[in-house]
Write a structure and sequence with these properties.
Blueprint (H helix, E strand, L loop, with lengths): L13 E5 L7 E7 L2 E10 L13 E8 L11 H4 L4 H15 L4 H4 L3 E10 L4 H23 L11 E9 L2 E4 L3 H6 L2 E8 L4 E8 L6 H26 L2
Parallel strand pairs: 4-5
Antiparallel strand pairs: 1-2, 2-3, 3-5, 6-7, 6-8, 8-9
Protein backbone atom coordinates (compact mmCIF):
# COMPACT_ATOMS: atom_id res chain seq x y z
CA UNK A 1 0.00 0.00 0.00
CA UNK A 2 2.89 2.38 0.72
CA UNK A 3 4.97 3.38 -2.34
CA UNK A 4 8.11 2.05 -0.64
CA UNK A 5 6.44 -1.24 0.30
CA UNK A 6 6.98 -0.58 4.01
CA UNK A 7 4.55 -1.64 6.71
CA UNK A 8 2.39 1.12 8.22
CA UNK A 9 4.59 1.34 11.33
CA UNK A 10 7.90 0.68 9.58
CA UNK A 11 10.55 3.39 9.51
CA UNK A 12 13.15 3.87 6.83
CA UNK A 13 16.70 2.68 7.64
CA UNK A 14 18.44 5.07 10.06
CA UNK A 15 22.19 5.62 10.33
CA UNK A 16 24.18 8.29 12.18
CA UNK A 17 27.89 8.74 11.50
CA UNK A 18 29.66 11.00 14.00
CA UNK A 19 32.72 13.29 13.81
CA UNK A 20 32.41 13.82 10.06
CA UNK A 21 33.72 17.41 10.19
CA UNK A 22 37.25 18.12 11.32
CA UNK A 23 36.78 21.59 12.80
CA UNK A 24 33.32 21.45 14.37
CA UNK A 25 33.06 20.75 18.10
CA UNK A 26 30.40 18.16 17.30
CA UNK A 27 29.16 16.78 13.99
CA UNK A 28 27.26 13.93 12.39
CA UNK A 29 25.76 12.81 9.11
CA UNK A 30 22.29 11.42 9.68
CA UNK A 31 20.61 9.32 7.00
CA UNK A 32 16.95 8.39 7.25
CA UNK A 33 16.26 6.54 4.04
CA UNK A 34 17.16 8.89 1.20
CA UNK A 35 17.06 11.98 3.41
CA UNK A 36 20.63 12.92 4.37
CA UNK A 37 21.43 15.85 6.67
CA UNK A 38 24.85 17.08 7.80
CA UNK A 39 24.69 18.51 11.34
CA UNK A 40 27.45 20.41 13.12
CA UNK A 41 27.76 22.19 16.46
CA UNK A 42 29.84 25.30 17.10
CA UNK A 43 30.57 26.55 20.61
CA UNK A 44 30.72 30.34 21.01
CA UNK A 45 32.19 31.73 24.22
CA UNK A 46 29.46 34.29 24.79
CA UNK A 47 25.70 34.18 24.85
CA UNK A 48 23.48 36.50 22.78
CA UNK A 49 23.24 40.06 24.10
CA UNK A 50 19.72 39.54 25.46
CA UNK A 51 21.15 36.99 27.92
CA UNK A 52 24.05 39.12 29.13
CA UNK A 53 24.60 38.80 32.92
CA UNK A 54 21.80 36.23 33.29
CA UNK A 55 24.07 33.20 33.69
CA UNK A 56 22.05 31.42 31.01
CA UNK A 57 23.32 29.86 27.80
CA UNK A 58 21.58 29.46 24.46
CA UNK A 59 21.19 26.86 21.74
CA UNK A 60 20.14 28.03 18.30
CA UNK A 61 20.09 26.56 14.80
CA UNK A 62 20.50 27.38 11.15
CA UNK A 63 19.06 25.23 8.36
CA UNK A 64 19.57 25.09 4.63
CA UNK A 65 19.27 22.85 1.59
CA UNK A 66 21.88 22.34 -1.09
CA UNK A 67 20.69 23.36 -4.56
CA UNK A 68 20.37 19.77 -5.81
CA UNK A 69 19.04 18.21 -2.62
CA UNK A 70 15.74 17.87 -4.49
CA UNK A 71 14.59 16.72 -7.93
CA UNK A 72 15.16 20.11 -9.51
CA UNK A 73 17.74 22.76 -8.63
CA UNK A 74 16.75 25.31 -6.00
CA UNK A 75 18.62 28.61 -6.04
CA UNK A 76 20.73 29.32 -2.98
CA UNK A 77 18.97 31.67 -0.59
CA UNK A 78 22.21 33.65 -0.24
CA UNK A 79 21.95 34.48 -3.95
CA UNK A 80 18.32 35.55 -3.53
CA UNK A 81 19.34 37.80 -0.65
CA UNK A 82 16.86 36.47 1.93
CA UNK A 83 15.75 33.32 3.66
CA UNK A 84 12.40 31.82 2.76
CA UNK A 85 9.66 31.68 5.36
CA UNK A 86 9.98 27.89 5.33
CA UNK A 87 13.68 28.04 6.20
CA UNK A 88 13.10 30.49 9.04
CA UNK A 89 10.27 28.38 10.46
CA UNK A 90 12.33 25.18 10.35
CA UNK A 91 15.44 26.60 11.98
CA UNK A 92 13.36 28.13 14.77
CA UNK A 93 11.73 24.73 15.29
CA UNK A 94 15.14 23.05 15.51
CA UNK A 95 16.38 25.59 18.05
CA UNK A 96 13.24 25.36 20.21
CA UNK A 97 13.35 21.59 20.14
CA UNK A 98 16.98 21.27 21.18
CA UNK A 99 16.68 23.89 23.94
CA UNK A 100 13.91 21.78 25.48
CA UNK A 101 16.53 19.18 26.36
CA UNK A 102 19.09 21.60 27.84
CA UNK A 103 19.62 23.12 31.30
CA UNK A 104 20.70 26.55 30.13
CA UNK A 105 22.03 27.57 33.56
CA UNK A 106 24.42 24.58 33.54
CA UNK A 107 25.57 25.58 30.06
CA UNK A 108 26.64 29.01 31.34
CA UNK A 109 26.79 32.20 29.31
CA UNK A 110 27.78 30.67 26.00
CA UNK A 111 25.98 29.77 22.80
CA UNK A 112 26.00 26.56 20.78
CA UNK A 113 24.98 26.96 17.15
CA UNK A 114 23.67 23.89 15.34
CA UNK A 115 24.03 24.02 11.55
CA UNK A 116 21.83 21.60 9.60
CA UNK A 117 22.53 21.28 5.89
CA UNK A 118 20.32 19.01 3.80
CA UNK A 119 22.46 17.11 1.30
CA UNK A 120 19.57 15.06 -0.07
CA UNK A 121 15.85 15.41 0.62
CA UNK A 122 13.20 12.71 0.52
CA UNK A 123 10.77 13.93 3.18
CA UNK A 124 11.27 14.55 6.89
CA UNK A 125 14.27 16.88 6.62
CA UNK A 126 13.32 18.94 9.68
CA UNK A 127 12.87 15.77 11.74
CA UNK A 128 16.24 14.42 10.64
CA UNK A 129 17.83 17.79 11.41
CA UNK A 130 16.47 17.78 14.97
CA UNK A 131 17.50 14.17 15.59
CA UNK A 132 20.98 14.64 14.14
CA UNK A 133 21.30 18.11 15.64
CA UNK A 134 20.92 16.58 19.11
CA UNK A 135 23.83 14.22 18.42
CA UNK A 136 26.06 17.12 17.30
CA UNK A 137 25.02 19.06 20.41
CA UNK A 138 25.76 16.08 22.68
CA UNK A 139 29.26 15.69 21.21
CA UNK A 140 30.01 19.40 21.62
CA UNK A 141 28.87 19.38 25.25
CA UNK A 142 31.03 16.33 25.88
CA UNK A 143 34.05 18.41 24.88
CA UNK A 144 33.08 21.18 27.30
CA UNK A 145 32.78 18.63 30.09
CA UNK A 146 36.07 16.91 29.22
CA UNK A 147 37.90 20.23 29.22
CA UNK A 148 36.42 21.20 32.58
CA UNK A 149 34.85 24.30 31.03
CA UNK A 150 31.54 23.30 32.62
CA UNK A 151 31.18 21.09 35.67
CA UNK A 152 27.67 19.65 35.30
CA UNK A 153 26.04 18.15 32.24
CA UNK A 154 23.48 20.57 30.75
CA UNK A 155 21.90 17.88 28.57
CA UNK A 156 18.71 16.87 30.36
CA UNK A 157 17.36 14.35 27.86
CA UNK A 158 17.45 13.12 24.31
CA UNK A 159 15.39 14.99 21.72
CA UNK A 160 14.26 13.31 18.50
CA UNK A 161 11.66 14.06 15.85
CA UNK A 162 9.60 11.92 13.49
CA UNK A 163 6.92 12.51 10.90
CA UNK A 164 3.60 10.66 10.71
CA UNK A 165 0.59 11.12 8.51
CA UNK A 166 -2.54 9.69 7.02
CA UNK A 167 -1.75 8.32 3.58
CA UNK A 168 -4.38 6.58 1.45
CA UNK A 169 -6.65 6.61 4.49
CA UNK A 170 -4.16 4.83 6.78
CA UNK A 171 -1.95 6.24 9.59
CA UNK A 172 1.70 5.71 8.60
CA UNK A 173 5.06 6.34 10.26
CA UNK A 174 8.02 8.24 8.79
CA UNK A 175 6.71 9.76 5.57
CA UNK A 176 8.97 9.84 2.54
CA UNK A 177 8.41 12.43 -0.18
CA UNK A 178 5.82 10.55 -2.28
CA UNK A 179 3.74 10.00 0.87
CA UNK A 180 4.31 13.49 2.26
CA UNK A 181 3.21 15.14 -0.97
CA UNK A 182 -0.01 13.08 -1.12
CA UNK A 183 -0.87 12.74 2.58
CA UNK A 184 -4.33 13.74 3.74
CA UNK A 185 -2.89 14.66 7.14
CA UNK A 186 0.73 15.52 7.83
CA UNK A 187 2.32 15.69 11.28
CA UNK A 188 5.74 16.24 12.87
CA UNK A 189 6.33 15.13 16.45
CA UNK A 190 9.25 16.23 18.63
CA UNK A 191 9.67 13.84 21.57
CA UNK A 192 12.17 13.52 24.43
CA UNK A 193 13.90 10.32 25.48
CA UNK A 194 11.46 10.04 28.38
CA UNK A 195 8.54 10.21 25.98
CA UNK A 196 7.48 13.77 26.74
CA UNK A 197 6.24 15.95 23.88
CA UNK A 198 8.18 19.07 22.94
CA UNK A 199 6.19 20.14 19.89
CA UNK A 200 3.49 18.71 17.65
CA UNK A 201 2.75 20.10 14.19
CA UNK A 202 -0.32 18.63 12.53
CA UNK A 203 -2.37 19.85 9.61
CA UNK A 204 -5.07 18.50 7.34
CA UNK A 205 -3.80 18.69 3.79
CA UNK A 206 -7.03 17.17 2.45
CA UNK A 207 -9.90 16.02 4.64
CA UNK A 208 -9.95 16.90 8.32
CA UNK A 209 -8.80 14.28 10.83
CA UNK A 210 -10.48 12.87 13.91
CA UNK A 211 -9.28 12.77 17.51
CA UNK A 212 -8.87 9.00 17.18
CA UNK A 213 -6.67 9.42 14.11
CA UNK A 214 -4.58 12.02 15.94
CA UNK A 215 -4.01 9.59 18.82
CA UNK A 216 -3.07 6.83 16.37
CA UNK A 217 -0.44 9.10 14.83
CA UNK A 218 0.83 10.03 18.29
CA UNK A 219 1.24 6.34 19.13
CA UNK A 220 3.22 5.77 15.93
CA UNK A 221 5.37 8.82 16.66
CA UNK A 222 6.18 7.67 20.18
CA UNK A 223 7.33 4.28 18.88
CA UNK A 224 9.38 5.91 16.12
CA UNK A 225 11.01 8.36 18.51
CA UNK A 226 12.17 5.46 20.71
CA UNK A 227 13.93 3.92 17.73
CA UNK A 228 15.60 7.22 16.92
CA UNK A 229 16.81 7.60 20.51
CA UNK A 230 18.31 4.11 20.24
CA UNK A 231 20.14 5.25 17.07
CA UNK A 232 21.39 8.36 18.91
CA UNK A 233 22.67 6.23 21.79
CA UNK A 234 24.42 3.88 19.38
CA UNK A 235 26.03 6.82 17.57
CA UNK A 236 27.47 8.42 20.71
CA UNK A 237 28.43 5.10 22.27
CA UNK A 238 25.93 5.46 25.12
Amino acid sequence: MRPSGRQLDQMRPVSIETNVMRHAEGSCLIKIGNTHVLCSATIEDKAPSFLKNTGLGWVTAEYGMLPRATNSRTRREAVLGKQSGRTQEIQRLIGRSLRAGVDRSALGERQIVIDCDVLQADGGTRCAAITGGWVALRLAVNKLLAAGTIVSDPILDHVAAISCGIYAGQPVLDLDYPEDSAAGTDGNFVVTGRGRLVEVQMSAEGASFSREEMLELLGLAEAGAKRLVEAQLSAIGG
